[in-house]
UDP-glucuronate decarboxylase
Amino acid sequence: MSAIQAAAENYPTHDLQAHTNIPVETLRALYLPDRDLPNGTAQNASTDSTTVTFPTVRTEYPAVKKLNPLNKKRILVTGGAGFVGSHLVDRLMLMGHDVICIDNFFTGTKSNVSNWIGHPNFELIRHDVVDPIMVEVDQVYHLACPASPVHYQSNPVKTLKTGFFGTYNMLGLSKRVKARFLLASTSEIYGSPAEHPQQEEYWGHVNPIGPRACYDEGKRVAEALTYSYSRQDGVDVRVARIFNTFGPRMNWNDGRVVSNFILQALRGEEVTIYGDGEATRSFQYIHDLVDGLIALMESDCKEPVNLGNPDEFTINEFAETVSRIVREVGGKVKGEGEVRIKHLPPVEDDPQRRRPDIERAKEKIGWEPKVSVLDGLRETVLYFKRTLEE
Ligand SMILES: NC(=O)c1ccc[n+]([C@@H]2O[C@H](COP(=O)([O-])OP(=O)(O)OC[C@H]3O[C@@H](n4cnc5c(N)ncnc54)[C@H](O)[C@@H]3O)[C@@H](O)[C@H]2O)c1
């Protein structure tokens, strides 16, 4: 039994149950629709080699909760068309809130939120957060920022502008309309950590001039701005330090470990590992992260909170597990059962170890991950397989 399989035994339920009382099947229908249902095709395009056809017929939107107007919030999600943002939008919509999604579609897509376009509770605005915008809302989830090295390093100056001006504009907006503000920060603010696991008190070990600095330092200045607005202007702030997250709708060509492995295994290619594969990572499933973001926003906790899954595995273990799951779901893996791994030179400044200490999240917001990496990987492989087929 692999370490990832063994760890899965510690999870109470072997399913993808989320905390916010939204049935998993309801969430699943939004990213992995049943092909036989009329609405199931709404987010999927059919395509041949030269053309692509998007269906226009949607008989009805997914059912959303009917909220008492006093409990119904107007919620802004910046970066809402991205991987994390679109799952957050799904959840907030299903919970019955009014949701405004702002995105410049740099890495996000309209198809990620296509389930909701035209819905009376939903608004999609193409906008770059580097420029100011004014909307009347009660809460701001500020996620807009490219998250993968391929994307954030493609224009590092823009990444820094997004980190600073984007956060500055959203904090200014929150101050003006008295909205509660949540920053999607990152474990990258710990850099290549000298402490393990990483607690929120740890100040980090970041290379300020390396290729990852535009993202890491962008997020660090975003945190500094957030707490400055809190101290100086009384803005009600929350900071989530998000650790590696995976799941359906993650960008599949951004070179991140999970998507890379799944795609390579599904395509029958060699699985490429940078370095010797003994570096460790911990990955949380997207439903757990969304639960954590909502729990943090609704809590009284103003301190930064780590949101991640503390189960830690080597990159080699991930490669083997992904290949095995791909075989289980009927995908291809080169070498008939044997994992073929190609080792490439290590990436500059790539941290060797990363694992969250989540004691604060448990204590202050009552959150901990519920989905094992194994269950999450199975769902993600299914999603990628379906998407590749389409
Ligand atoms: N996915 C992870 O593992 C992870 C880990 C740590 C932190 N985070 C943070 O969570 C947030 C979401 O990450 P993700 O994985 O969904 O990435 P993503 O790239 O899928 O989503 C980011 C979204 O922000 C949009 N965006 C980027 N720059 C923008 C700008 N200037 N104006 C408006 N929209 C802009 C993109 O188009 C995209 O829709 C990011 O802030 C990221 O730093 C993610």
